[in-house]
Amino acid sequence: MSDLTLDPARINTSEGPVVIVAAGSEERERSSSGHRHARGQLMGSMRGLLSVGVEDGQWIVPAIHAVWLPPHHFHAVRSHGPFSGWSVYVAEPACADLPQRPCTLRTSGLLREAVLRAATWGLDPLDAQRERVAQLILDEIRYAPPAPFGLPLPRDPRLQRVARALIDDPADQRDLESWARAAAMSSRTLTRRFSAETGFGFVAWRQRARLMRALEMLAADKPVTMVAMDLGYASASAFIKLFAREFGATPAAYRRALPAS
I need a surface site. Which of 48, 85, 138, 191 has the fewest CB within 10 A? Predict the structure, then answer.
């Protein structure tokens, strides 16, 4: 289907094709409020970048990656700038051996081509040839390697306020003691709880929030030096080093890997 939006009734039932695919483009930023549906969903980007909020974290979906949401998982979606992408909705029975938790996946060229072909099918029953393509899509979801684009959120409401403030403004330079005062707890307690609830120390979590925003800015074609300065890094070289350590590629190499718009 050529539109990114589907009738909610279609994605809240397992009736119909095992996979339903929607693909399209948006020239303006787009957002959806929190919702859930009965089908599993794999959403991917061909141009631009998505952020997906789930109950316990924030996921970034840069081009060449996708995020998987099992059936009935709460989520909200926002695009950043012009966006071209697709969504695969998988009937709930077919999700039994797919990932059981939300995750980001590295997509293959084979998966993208199969998805774009399936986007032309509409909602008609699948013939034997289309059924094979649908099963190929399911296999690619099943075996796609995970990608490190998640940002887990703490459960404590006080820590959540701190975390969301840093997501909104990753360049905020307040130190640990200042954030602890804002959360009405000691710096030791903030550090201990942040680590226990997210798996990251506070400093590491804040660094990851900055890198998530860096992906958005790189997808918008901002210069690497501007990204580094806007996010509060001491120098472009410090930003490049941290980015490469986290994602296995320099910012410039990451941008070259993005599909052409």
Answer: 191
Quick one: which of 140, 153, 163, 2 has its CA closest to 68?
Answer: 140
Per DSSP, the three-state class of 9 is helix
Q: Give the contacts of 241 (CB within 8 A, at least 6 positions apart).
A: none
Cα–Cα dist 245/215, whole Å: 14
| Token couple for 214 | 């860096």
Judge whether 190 and 206 are in contact, CB under 8 Å: no
Query: Mean pLDDT by 10-residue block, N- to C-terminus, for the chain (261 residues)?
Result: 62 89 80 88 81 79 83 86 85 95 87 93 90 97 83 86 86 93 95 91 90 82 92 93 89 76 46
Burial of 245 (0-12, 13-18, 19+ CB in 10 A): exposed
Give the C-alpha separation, 245 to 256, whole Å. 18
